[in-house]
Amino acid sequence: MKRILLVDDEAKLRSAIRRMLEPLGLEIEEAADGYEALRSYRSCHAELVICDVFMPDKDGLELISVLKKEFDEVKILAISGGGFDGTMDLLPTALHFGATEILQKPFKQEDLLEKVKALLEQ
After folding, report:
1. Using CA atoms, how far apart are residues 95 and 34, in angstroms rounded to an integer?
2. What is the pLDDT of residues 77-104, one digit of tens each?
3. 10-39 b/e (C-beta count within 10 Å ≥ 16 → b)
4. What strand order describes the sheet that includes 27-31?
5. CATH of 3-121, one of 3.20.20.140, 3.40.50.2300, 2.30.42.10, 3.30.70.120
6. Average pLDDT over residues 44-50
7. pLDDT at residue 58 greater than cutoff 70
8. Contact 94, 103 (CB under 8 A)
9. Rg over CA atoms, the chain
């Protein structure tokens, strides 16, 4: 069974994404911030990391950078709704930091599933 690490500081959003991914039959681990995500990934590598860009403490860009330095092969889908006030689009920056793919929030289930399937098949 393929494993995904889902990183977002909003528990409700993690729960919604988990429900969206359930049809793929994946094992989903969750982390609420970048520090928790690093601990989780280091102990048990996932085939894909889905990571919010804006989080308190260690944000998504920092997490992406550290993961890519330590695990060059990691696949990362960066997600963002434009920051705390919705006006900052850092998804292109996430690609520069090493994200494999990006997805703008809010997104439809079919868009998420399409990206996840494609990344897991690479």
Report:
1. 17
2. 999 986 555 556 789 999 999 999 999 9
3. eeebbeebeebbeeeebebbbbbbbebbbe
4. 27-31, 3-7, 48-52, 76-80, 101-104
5. 3.40.50.2300
6. 96
7. yes
8. no
9. 13
Instruction: Kindly report whether the peptide bond that precedes residue 56 is cis, defined as omega within 30 degrees of 0.
Output: no
- Alpha-helix runs per DSSP H in 1-122: 11-21, 34-43, 60-70, 91-97, 109-121
What mean pLDDT is predicted for residues 55-63?
91
For 3-36, what is each residue's pLDDT tens digit? Answer: 999 999 999 999 999 999 999 999 999 999 999 9
Separation CA 52–CA 92 (nearest Å):
13
Greatest C-alpha distance within the chain: 38
For residue 81, the model assigns a pLDDT of 84
Q: Quick one: tokens of 88?
A: 């900052």
